[in-house]
Specification:
The complex is a heterodimer of chains A (581) and B (593). In chain A, strands 6-7-8-3-9-10 form a 6-stranded mixed sheet, with helices on both faces. In chain A, 65% of the residues lie in helices and 9% in strands. Chain A is elongated and about 120 Å long. Chain B folds into 2 domains: 328 residues, ABC transporter type 1, transmembrane domain (ABC transporter transmembrane region fold); 245 residues, P-loop containing nucleotide triphosphate hydrolases (Rossmann fold, 3-Layer(aba) Sandwich). Chain B has 20 helices and 12 strands. In chain B, helix 18 links the parallel strand 9 and strand 10. The longest helix of chain B has 49 residues. Classes of the chains: A alpha/beta (581), B alpha/beta (593). At the A-B interface, helix 3, helix 4, helix 6, helix 8 and helix 9 of A face helix 2, helix 3, helix 5, helix 7 and helix 8 of B.
Chain lengths: 581, 593
């Protein structure tokens, strides 16, 4: 129940709606309960033969009025109550999203997408349930219960109430037990279902193997075994679920029996009228809901609390990189790296060591080396993906930590290794960082990235949808769109992180030539495996195990006969083989 | 996911009927369910009648003969108990039918997927196929668990209540029966109005999920481009849209679904009171009848509301059913039994040509033959068509031109089971199933212990297996998590060797493994030579230097063919590939410095 206190801030903010809803369901309860009483009165009048036309019409009129009033109030309390709970979900969803936009990339490596998604969807639903159905079953259940018992005791007969209620505590207890079992059963069924999913996933992705070994029948058997386990779990849930109705039925039935038997005796003693007995049996029906609500409430709150805890954790997570810098403008596109040593917070060996490099504005720096040499780490330090102690990286004369994150990001345009396209049109994907760009501007950068012709061949040209629901692009096309996207920003610093790997050599050459043309006075960092991409760089560094193994221009490095020169030869041969020579 | 958002305007009755027909396979359960349902309903309807008898015959006149009352009480208790028991048993029968049906549908669709031609999988994302087999069948389950039972039970109950009412007072029953068409009309309009709203909310929700997952995956790009505010704004827009859609749903529910039938019921109650009151001016009325009517009225509306709520489940189930039937009905790979068996292991490709899309040829004019017991290797760069060649040999696809012969019989005529048994394959990514080492070697086949151990010995895996806590009965984790890549590959080799195939295919089996494992595989191949025909695709040329003949593929054509020594003497593709790999080793060494 602590969750209700934790959600106090929200109840306070929405107290008018909650108060209105609560007042209305109390009103509904009171009015609804007057109907059995009126029915009883009519019956008594009939039996005493004191009923008159006017009296009858008055009673019927009251019932009709009550019916209408109840209808109106029922409408409004639903709207008020669920408006509030939906709104809570909405608020939390936006908070989670906004919070995630502040988290550094490391955060997303630590949390799986599915896990974050679950918090923003399922967990929010569970909390929403608490603020809606939870409040309803807690308060309305209580009010109904108290009201019914009060009416039965005060207005009709306390002895009859006592006898008739005997079976109900049993039902309340039974509901709690069933609710618990149902909840556990659901969880179990869900796990079995995900086993089933895993199994099918494995079979479908292993289809070649299954075929090659003629294992289809065997797969069928194994699938059925797991499907049966899932079915068994489901049957247990269904069996538990099917126990509710008989439980209600037996409780109410035995209560009716006790009540009619005891009532008859009271009527005989003249301490009760037949009309009162009839209304009493009607009241008994009202008691089912509070019993049910109690078990339900426990369940909702249990799930809601666990969910709220997970959401809180997420919202309280601090970004690994604090946005502390105050400088909002860089003074030049010079870059200097002064890195003594850098070790990842969970690593032992330094990933970068003794890297001292100066790049003047307008120059191109090539960063090459084998996989795992620290190339990407170096540019991650530059972009502040994580904070690196013992590393001084400056843009212009300013240390990157003194720049605001916004300024740093505006200064650097990145084309990442794995180009990520959003579900949107090609034009929107290119203009991602500059949504107000004109079509001419978009086309201009697409031409620079040698993708314009490809785009015009698509069914809807620049308005073709890409991503999950759109057309599928080749790796090279994606890379070139990502390049166009970065070029549109016209940032002082451009980083190509192995961004041409899926582009053929000829296209790569023309893109690089375009870049040299338009990016005068602007700094470019090129990371690559295929060395032809750095041939024209003013400076090339070869990283190996986080250290600079060789440095110089293409020509200088060729004369050194080191890794660079060997790799150039190797790649020449590779190209020959690729073209079948 | 996307397909789930399709707005369903009307459901196809034929598909619904086809789904329901599955239940007919359980006539015993259905009959039992029907009898139990009648019993349960009888008990529910008779209760108020007994109370009515008690009120009118005993309380009103004020007579209380003990014996008769005891009988009445006993009857009441029996009816209630019986009804509760029958209700529960009925629900359980329905559940059993439901789960048996789902089991059948699941088995059918899974088996159908497992037997589709491999080209079927080329353009279908795994996720969507998985979803057909699991989520869609789950939706079908709801049809039986939630929809069918609710409809049958509630319709029966309503009919029984009206019969009881008619028996008590025919005229009043007729008055009360007005409520039915009214409630049904209201529910009809509710359904009409809520269906588009409901689908709208669902499609916005799935859009939110899509945006959420995309934003999380692309958050780095969003941040790099300083677009956090814009994306948060976009998200806020969609999130708000969801809120609005849900509110619109809610208002409709609050207006029509819940309170309206209750309103009608209370108005009906007023009518009953008016009827009895007016009657009492002229005749004597039975109070017990009023009691019974009041009691019955309170039970009429709920079933109709329940049925209305389940209608959307019905729609989803039918849509899911259509998708599942789509898979079941599509023809699978033809698997037939013939008496053509592989005995020697000769392989011949005759002018074979193949293309996946009918447009771009992947293999052209492939022509070679391998005598039984020979070791042939096929090499080539990525995209040269060497994997496709193996796929054709395994009959994953049929060639468009030319033909493939095994032991001089066309591949298409050979008994499928025999083909799978006689052509063994070791793939690049070993497929390890959850189970013991033994199960992974036998893969469900009846293979003797000696053959298992011998195969493991040949794959040099036996000693390692014996060092495991439970030997051959050691459980392997998911995807062989507790084995190294090399060990997994050796296990895969042992599995194939245990089948003693006439023809062994290695499909890039040495691509991802260390040189020790490679050496082991080479030794194993040496042992097989002469007895088993070996066809190896190798990226790593060191694996195949001892092959009888090497076929060099480039862009779907055979460029060169000959032994390793012969090919090395010629300044051509093979020699360049070989040099490339030597240089690669050199470059890799340089990296370590």
């Amino acid at each position: 129940m602590g969750l209700f206190f934790k959600l106090g801030w929200y109840f306070k903010a929405q107290w008018r709606r909650y108060a209105a809803a609560i007042l209305m369901f109390i009103g509904v309860d009171v009015l609804e309960m007057s109907i059995p009483w009126i029915t009883g009165r009519v019956i008594d009048h009939v039996l005493d033969q004191t009923l008159t036309q006017a009296l009858l019409l008055r009673y019927v009129g009251i019932v009709v009025t009550i019916a209408l009033a109840v209808y109106v109030m029922r409408f409004f309390w639903r709207v008020f109550l669920f408006y509030s709970s939906f709104n809570l979900a909405e608020t939390m969803r936006q908070r989670i999203f906004a919070h995630m936009t502040l988290m550094a990339p490391q955060f997303f490596q630590q949390h799986r997408t599915g896990d974050l998604m679950a918090r923003a969807t399922n967990d929010i639903s569970a909390v929403e349930m608490t603020a809606g159905e939870g409040v309803l079953s807690g308060i309305d259940g209580l009010v109904t219960g108290v009201l019914v018992i009060a009416i039965m005791t005060v207005l009709i007969s306390w002895e009859l109430t006592l006898i008739a209620l005997l079976p109900f505590p049993f039902m309340a207890w039974y509901f709690v037990v069933l609710g618990d079992r149902l909840h556990k059963g659901f969880r179990d069924a869900q796990e079995r279902f995900s086993d089933l999913n895993d199994r099918v996933q494995e079979s479908v992705s292993g289809i070649r193997m299954i075929r090659a070994f003629g294992r289809e029948a065997r797969e069928d058997e194994e699938f059925l075994r797991i499907a049966d386990r899932a079915a068994e779990a489901n049957i247990r849930v269904a069996a538990t679920d099917s126990l509710y109705d008989p439980a209600i039925f037996i409780t109410v039935g035995s209560s009716f029996m006790l009540c009619v038997g005891m009532g008859a005796w009271l009527v005989e003693q003249d301490r009760l009228t037949l009309g009162q007995l009839t209304s009493f049996t009607m009241y008994l029906g009202f008691l089912i809901w509070p019993m049910f609500a109690y078990g339900w409430l426990l369940n909702i709150v249990e799930r809601g609390s666990a969910a709220y805890k997970r959401i809180e954790q997420l919202l309280q997570a601090e970004s690994p990189v604090a946005d502390t810098g105050a400088i909002t403008q860089i003074d030049s596109a010079d870059i200097s790296f002064e890195i003594e040593s850098f070790t990842h917070h969970d690593g032992h060996k330094p990933v970068l060591k003794n890297i001292f490099v100066q790049v003047r504005g307008g120059e191109t720096l090539g960063i090459v080396g084998p996989t795992g040499a620290g190339k990407t780490t170096l540019i991650n330090v530059l972009q502040r993906y994580f904070d690196a102690p013992h590393c001084t990286v400056k843009i212009g004369g300013t240390q990157i930590q003194q720049l605001s994150l916004q300024a740093l990001r505006s200064a650097v345009a990145l084309v990442p290794q794995d180009p990520f396209l959003f579900t949107a049109t090609i034009a929107e994907n290119i203009a991602l960082g500059k949504p107000d760009a004109t079509r001419e501007q978009i086309r201009a950068v697409a031409q620079l990235a040698s993708i314009d012709k490809d785009i015009l061949r698509f069914p809807a040209g620049y308005d073709t949808l890409v991503g999950e629901r759109g057309i599928t692009l080749s790796g090279g096309q994606k890379q070139r769109i990502a390049i166009a996207r970065a070029l549109l920003l016209d940032a002082p610093i451009l980083i190509l992180d192995d961004a041409l790997s899926a582009v053929d050599v000829g296209t790569e050459r023309s893109i690089l030539a375009h870049l040299r043309e338009v990016r005068v006075d602007r700094t470019t960092l090129v990371l690559c495996h295929r060395l032809s991409a750095v041939e024209y760089a003013q400076q090339i560094i070869v990283l190996n195990h986080g250290e600079i193994a060789e440095r110089g221009t293409h020509r200088e490095l060729m004369t050194r006969k080191g890794w660079y020169a060997q790799m150039i030869d190797y790649q020449k041969l590779e190209q020959a083989v690729e073209s079948g020579r | 996911m996307n397909q789930d958002d399709d707005i369903v305007k009307s459901i196809k009755l034929s598909s619904l009927w086809r789904l329901l027909r599955y239940a007919l396979a359980y006539p015993r359960l259905l009959k039992e369910a029907a009898v139990l349902l009648l019993l349960a309903t009888l008990g529910q309807v008779l209760g108020p009648v007994l109370v009515k008898i008690f009120i009118d015959d005993y309380i009103t006149p004020g007579e209380y003969p003990i014996r008769e009352l005891a009988t009445l009480a006993f009857a009441y208790a029996v009816f209630y108990g019986l009804s509760a028991w029958a209700g529960y048993q009925n629900a359980m029968r329905f559940n059993e039918v439901a789960f048996s049906v789902v089991r059948t549908v699941r088995a059918q669709v899974f088996a159908a997927v497992m037997r589709k031609p491999l080209s079927y999988f080329d353009h279908r994302p795994t996720g969507s196929l998985v979803s057909r087999i699991t989520n869609d069948t789950e939706a079908i389950k709801e049809l039986f668990v939630q929809v069918m039972s609710t409809f049958v039970q509630n319709v029966t109950l309503i009919i029984a209540i009206f019969i009881a009412m008619a028996w008590l007072d025919l005229r009043l029953m007729l008055v009360c029966s007005i409520i039915l068409p009214v409630v049904v009309t209201v529910m009809f309009f509710y359904q009409r109005m809520s269906s588009p709203r409901y689908h709208k909310a669902r499609s916005v929700l799935s859009r939110i999920n899509a945006i959420l997952s995309e934003s999380i995956q692309g958050m780095r790009i969003i941040q790099v481009l300083n677009q956090q505010k814009r994306f948060a704004g976009q998200f806020r827009g969609v999130s708000q849209e969801l809120f609005n859609a849900r509110m619109s749903n809610l208002r409709l529910d609050a207006l029509m679904l819940r309170p309206l039938p209750d309103l009608l019921r209370t108005l009906m109650l007023a009518a009953v009171l008016l009827y009895f009151g007016t009657q009492s001016f002229t005749t004597v009325v039975e109070v017990g009848v009023i009691y019974a009517f009041v009691n019955y009225l309170s039970r009429i509306t709920q079933p109709v509301v329940e049925m209305t709520q389940r209608l959307s489940l019905l729609q989803q189930a039918v849509v899911a059913g259509e998708r599942v039937f789509g898979i079941i009905d599509e023809p699978g790979e033809t698997q037939f039994a013939t008496d053509q068996r592989i005995t020697r292991g000769a392989v011949r490709f005759e002018q074979v040509g193949f293309s996946y899309d009918g447009e771009h040829p992947v293999l052209e004019d492939i022509d070679f033959s391998v005598a039984p017991g020979q070791f042939y290797a096929i090499v080539g760069h990525t995209g040269s068509g060497k994997s496709t060649l193996m796929s054709l040999l395994l009959r994953f696809y049929d060639p468009q031109q030319g033909r493939i012969l095994l032991d001089d019989m066309p591949l298409a005529d050979i008994d499928q089971r025999d083909l799978r048994a006689q052509v063994g394959v070791v793939l690049q990514d070993p497929f390890i199933t959850v189970g013991t080492v033994r199960e992974n070697i036998t893969l469900g086949l009846d293979i003797s212990e000696e053959r298992i151990i011998e195969a493991a010995r040949k794959a040099q895996l036996h000693d390692f297996v014996m060092s495991l806590p439970d030997g051959y009965d050691t459980k392997l984790g998911e995807r062989g998590g507790n084995l190294s890549t090399g060990q997994r590959q050796l296990l895969s080799l042992a599995r194939t060797l245990a089948r003693e195939p006439r023809i062994l295919i290695l499909d890039e089996a040495t691509a991802n493994i260390d040189s020790h494992t490679e050496a082991v595989i080479q030794q194993a191949l040496a042992l097989l030579r002469g007895n088993t025909t070996i066809l190896a695709i190798a990226h790593r040329l060191s694996t195949i230097t001892s092959a009888d003949s090497i076929i060099v593929l480039h862009q779907g054509h055979i460029m060169q063919q000959g032994s390793h020594q012969e090919l090395l003497r010629i300044d051509g593709l093979y020699r360049h590939m070989y040099e490339l790999q030597r240089q690669r080793a050199l470059v890799e060494d340089a990296e370590i410095l």
